[in-house]
Amino acid sequence: MAVKKATERAGKLGVTNATFIQTDARAMDPSWNDKFEFVMIFDACHDQCRPDLAIKEIYRVLKSGGVFAMVEIDGTSNVYEDRQTFGIGCAAFYSASVFHCLPVGSNTPDALAMGTMMGTKKGRKLLLDAGFNDIKIEKVPFFDFNVLYLAKK
Length: 153
Ligand SMILES: C[S@@+](CC[C@H](N)C(=O)[O-])C[C@H]1O[C@@H](n2cnc3c(N)ncnc32)[C@H](O)[C@@H]1O
Fold this sequence. Notes:
Elements: H1 2-13, E1 36-42, H2 51-61, E2 62-73, H3 79-86, H4 90-104, H5 119-130, E3 134-139, E4 146-152
Parallel strand pairs: 1-2
Antiparallel strand pairs: 2-4, 3-4
Helix pairs in contact: 2-5
The structure holds S-adenosylmethionine.
């Protein structure tokens, strides 16, 4: 439905240099080696069962010098430290995690079950393990509870 709507909208707006497809981020088109200058995902890492495999694929499809941008929920990757850093408000994100993100991210036998509060320690490790070593993690101006990871290949 989202792909259909986006394709229709692009057609109406006369956009000719964009294509919308549905694919599994863990196994993208094998011919896409070193193909893209920029890849971004928005709030779509911590819900995946195997975000490690998806990020390795993103590394593969990026050109040398290409950038991967990932917006995620801010967190320390430690429950106690989250409470100290973000206060009681972070309980809302742990609740969302228990009722949605952890169940959907635990749905295969090999799932990593990251959850909403994956946090920047685990996020950075996913990027390092995929091969990225130029990584910046910044707060974003539009949502106080998010961070932006910028990883250059
Ligand atoms: C929290 S939603 C975010 C969706 C959208 N980026 C947004 O901000 O509204 C997480 C998305 O990750 C997608 N997802 C989970 N596993 C995936 C995979 N292996 N490949 C591609 N997408 C996946 C889900 O289908 C879901 O749409």
